[in-house]
Amino acid sequence: MAEPIFDTALSIINNARERNLELRLIGSNAFRLHCPEFRHLFSAMKRQLTDVDLAGLSKHWSSITSLCEDMGFILDRRHAMHYPDRLLFTIPSNGLHVDVFLDRLSY
Length: 107
Fold this sequence. Notes:
The protein is an alpha+beta fold. Helices cover 40% and strands 21% of the residues. It has one domain: Beta Polymerase, domain 2. Strand 4 and strand 5 (97-102) form a beta hairpin.
Protein backbone atom coordinates (compact mmCIF):
# COMPACT_ATOMS: atom_id res chain seq x y z
CA MET A 1 0.00 0.00 0.00
CA ALA A 2 1.42 3.38 -1.01
CA GLU A 3 1.93 5.84 1.80
CA PRO A 4 2.99 9.12 0.17
CA ILE A 5 3.53 11.01 3.44
CA PHE A 6 5.63 8.21 4.93
CA ASP A 7 7.56 7.89 1.65
CA THR A 8 8.24 11.64 1.72
CA ALA A 9 9.50 11.36 5.30
CA LEU A 10 11.88 8.54 4.36
CA SER A 11 13.07 10.49 1.32
CA ILE A 12 13.95 13.49 3.49
CA ILE A 13 15.84 11.31 5.99
CA ASN A 14 17.72 9.49 3.22
CA ASN A 15 18.67 12.75 1.49
CA ALA A 16 19.86 14.17 4.82
CA ARG A 17 21.98 11.07 5.42
CA GLU A 18 23.59 11.45 1.98
CA ARG A 19 24.61 14.98 2.99
CA ASN A 20 25.91 13.84 6.39
CA LEU A 21 23.19 15.92 7.98
CA GLU A 22 21.72 14.62 11.21
CA LEU A 23 17.95 14.86 10.99
CA ARG A 24 15.66 12.61 13.04
CA LEU A 25 12.19 11.47 12.19
CA ILE A 26 9.76 11.95 15.10
CA GLY A 27 6.04 11.48 15.65
CA SER A 28 3.76 9.07 13.82
CA ASN A 29 6.15 8.52 10.91
CA ALA A 30 8.91 7.51 13.36
CA PHE A 31 6.52 5.07 14.99
CA ARG A 32 5.75 3.53 11.59
CA LEU A 33 9.46 3.26 10.80
CA HIS A 34 10.63 1.80 14.09
CA CYS A 35 7.60 -0.31 15.04
CA PRO A 36 6.36 -1.79 11.75
CA GLU A 37 4.73 -4.74 13.51
CA PHE A 38 2.22 -2.31 15.00
CA ARG A 39 1.27 -0.39 11.85
CA HIS A 40 -2.09 -2.14 11.89
CA LEU A 41 -3.00 -0.04 14.94
CA PHE A 42 -3.15 3.09 12.77
CA SER A 43 -5.80 1.45 10.61
CA ALA A 44 -7.69 0.12 13.62
CA MET A 45 -7.79 3.61 15.15
CA LYS A 46 -8.58 5.16 11.76
CA ARG A 47 -5.50 7.34 12.21
CA GLN A 48 -3.95 8.89 9.12
CA LEU A 49 -0.64 10.59 8.66
CA THR A 50 -1.09 14.32 8.14
CA ASP A 51 2.43 15.76 8.09
CA VAL A 52 6.12 15.02 8.57
CA ASP A 53 7.80 15.89 11.87
CA LEU A 54 11.57 16.03 12.16
CA ALA A 55 14.13 17.07 14.75
CA GLY A 56 17.43 18.72 13.99
CA LEU A 57 20.00 21.09 15.40
CA SER A 58 19.78 24.86 15.04
CA LYS A 59 23.44 24.99 14.01
CA HIS A 60 22.34 23.09 10.86
CA TRP A 61 19.54 25.58 10.06
CA SER A 62 20.96 26.55 6.66
CA SER A 63 21.82 22.95 5.69
CA ILE A 64 18.31 21.77 6.61
CA THR A 65 16.80 24.67 4.68
CA SER A 66 18.98 23.90 1.63
CA LEU A 67 18.07 20.22 1.76
CA CYS A 68 14.34 20.87 1.89
CA GLU A 69 14.44 23.60 -0.75
CA ASP A 70 16.51 21.34 -3.03
CA MET A 71 13.72 18.77 -2.64
CA GLY A 72 11.18 21.37 -3.78
CA PHE A 73 9.77 22.36 -0.40
CA ILE A 74 8.97 25.99 0.38
CA LEU A 75 10.12 27.48 3.69
CA ASP A 76 7.57 29.62 5.49
CA ARG A 77 9.99 32.48 6.18
CA ARG A 78 7.46 34.51 8.16
CA HIS A 79 6.97 31.56 10.52
CA ALA A 80 10.75 31.15 10.83
CA MET A 81 11.14 34.80 11.83
CA HIS A 82 8.66 34.41 14.69
CA TYR A 83 9.64 30.88 15.77
CA PRO A 84 13.42 30.47 15.45
CA ASP A 85 13.34 26.98 17.02
CA ARG A 86 11.06 25.54 14.34
CA LEU A 87 11.12 25.45 10.54
CA LEU A 88 7.92 24.93 8.60
CA PHE A 89 8.02 23.82 4.97
CA THR A 90 5.21 23.16 2.52
CA ILE A 91 5.28 20.91 -0.51
CA PRO A 92 3.52 22.96 -3.21
CA SER A 93 2.30 19.99 -5.24
CA ASN A 94 0.18 18.54 -2.43
CA GLY A 95 0.18 21.06 0.45
CA LEU A 96 1.93 18.64 2.82
CA HIS A 97 3.59 20.30 5.82
CA VAL A 98 7.04 19.38 7.05
CA ASP A 99 7.89 20.60 10.57
CA VAL A 100 11.50 20.65 11.73
CA PHE A 101 11.95 21.22 15.46
CA LEU A 102 15.38 22.62 16.28
CA ASP A 103 17.24 21.67 19.48
CA ARG A 104 14.06 20.91 21.44
CA LEU A 105 10.48 19.88 20.83
CA SER A 106 8.10 22.79 21.33
CA TYR A 107 4.65 23.61 20.00
